[in-house]
Amino acid sequence: MKNLLPLTIVTLILAGLVLTGSSAHAWFGGKFKKLTPENDQISISLDKISDGQAHYFTIQSEKGVDVKFFVVKSHDGIIRAAIDACDVCYRAGKGYVQEGNVMVCTNCGMRFATDRINEVKGGCNPAPLTRTIESGNLVISMADINANAWLCEFKK
Fold first, then answer.
1. Total domain count for the chain?
2. Is residue 10 part of a domain?
3. b/e map 91-127, b = 16+ CB within 10 Å
4. Residue 28's CATH number
5. Contact 144/61 with Cβ under 8 angstroms?
6. pLDDT at residue 24, rounded to an integer
7. 155: alpha, beta or left? (left if phi > 0; alpha if psi -120 to 50)
8. Residue 67 lies in a domain
9. Close Cβ partners of 33 (under 8 Å, ≥ 6 residues apart)
10. HSE of 129, CA atoms in CB hemisphere, 13 A
């Protein structure tokens, strides 16, 4: 009986995490890698983001808002970037998860083909970030981050 107490406690903690929809990411560092701008821009090595998986980042805007965004290489070979929010669901603060070649809003369930990110904007589409490729890096200006910070001001 004495040996069951630690196992019971662990089981209750894990059940609580599952029931609240929390993930290990939220408890152990999160899925967002923190970035620091240099020369008014963000630079991310293409080697780190060219695997077809969504990569999540956060950076502080000039007004102190933590702006969350994702980068994904779509199946057509283009690196795409968008705020982890849309014009409609941003107040929920839930963002997107990747399921194969689509990004899914974790608030409303809408699905967006990765090869349409940065092509379609407004409404429920992930808010696009303007990006360029320079010297083997994806580059996003802080001006674009700051202009989209309003999408990340609200927390659920």
1. 1
2. no
3. ebbbbbbbeeebbbbebeebebebbbbbeeeeebbbb
4. 2.102.10.10
5. no
6. 41
7. beta
8. yes
9. 55, 56, 57, 58
10. 31
Q: Which two tokens stand for residue 91?
A: 């107040």
Spatial distance between the Cα atoms of 13 and 122, rounded to a whole number of angstroms = 40
- For 71, how many CA atoms within 13 A lie in the half-sphere containing its CB? 25
Long-range contacts of 142-148 (CB under 8 A, 24+ apart): 142/37, 142/40, 142/41, 142/42, 142/59, 142/61, 142/62, 143/40, 145/37, 145/42, 145/59, 145/61, 145/67, 145/69, 146/61, 146/62, 146/63, 148/67, 148/83
Residue 83 lies in a domain: yes
In a domain, residue 65? The reply is yes
Tokens of 29: 């560092």
Domain interval for residue 91: 24-152
- φ, ψ of residue 35 in degrees (nearest 5): -115, 155
pLDDT tens-digit profile of 98-130? 999 999 999 999 999 999 999 998 888 999 999
**Confidence check: pLDDT of 27 > 90:** no
Residue 95 region by backbone torsions, left for phi larger than 0, else alpha for psi between -120 and 50, else beta: left
